[in-house]
Amino acid sequence: MVIGESTGVRSSPGRHRLRSVTAGIPPAWLGIIELTCGMATIAAGFLASDIITESLPVMLASTVRYLIATLVLLPVLLLSGRVPRFSRTTWWTLLAVALGGTLIFNSGLLYGLRYTTIIEAGIVTSTTPLLVGLFGLLFFRERLSGRSWLAILAATSGVFLVVVQPADASGETVGTLVRLGGLLLILMAASGEAAFNVFGRRLPRSVSSIAASTATMAIAIVLFLPGAVVEVVTGPGIPADRDGWLAVVFMGLIPSALGVLLWADGVRRVSLAVSGAATALIPVFTSLMAVAIVGERLQAVTLIGILLIVVSLAFLARWSVQDGSGLP
């Protein structure tokens, strides 16, 4: 069945069961849960991206990644019986979401990691919560209250505490100009993530999360495909790196398919301030995964930063619930 954006459809039994499970959870808190899980998948993808940049062409790897995500999400969309017919405005909004959250974010991140360190990248991406607030004000005149800005600043400060270490144990140094270029690429990625948040909240409520996610992944294929063709034609061919392609499959299944779906649903349940502050969880999960996988130790300053981020996010969610509208 094909539906328009304003056409109601009969909910499936699965949707009824899901609603019964989440009925007692305030929308803002449910959104926080979804955004938290989505940020965990993106943090895992952040680690996998380092493997991809060392072994595969960026555009080709990204095209395959989003193809995998689309092939996973499309059957789910078809089985849901909620295949949408988007308006022209919605298509433009989805294009903005895909440009920011896939092309700009991933190109900036993957290319930037080639010229800078993960620690420096984490410091630059800590500006994302602030960029979300600024983009919301710039593009849609969404004004945040003073306490929301205070909480966002606290979350951003917490990110700095998480990612800044006393010294780089690897002793790795990067040329000044090359390093500056890498940092600018990471800042571009942070801007793309902010745009993904801001424009994602502008999608009509009648457009389901699975439909928005599937469309975003499909648009991403179109955006990355020309660059992938150029890489294959002008390069040595398609690399046969097993670890690199396994990382691509992981990125397609977890951060892209699952993570984007969680984010698309959660971002429309919460305020701009909450969705912006939630991006501060990426370095938190990255640090925790480094402890669990690599065996690194968390320092006291890192724990303080994590606590500051979590407390800031909790206050924002609480204010959203108190205000009822989810817009503190």
From TrEMBL:
Record bears the keyword Cell wall biogenesis/degradation: no
Keywords noted in UniProt: Membrane, Transmembrane, Transmembrane helix
Main location: membrane
Superkingdom of the source species: Bacteria
Compartment(s) of residence: Membrane
Segments crossing the lipid bilayer: 21-46, 58-79, 91-112, 118-140, 147-165, 177-199, 206-225, 245-264, 271-294, 300-321
Record-annotated EamA domain positions: 30-163, 182-316
SUPFAM superfamilies in UniProt: Multidrug resistance efflux transporter EmrE
GO CC terms: membrane
Entries under InterPro entries matching the protein: AA-Vitamin_Transporters, EamA_dom, EmrE-like
Membrane-topology descriptor: Multi-pass membrane protein
Annotated family: Belongs to the EamA transporter family.
Protein name, per record: Permease of the drug/metabolite transporter (DMT) superfamily
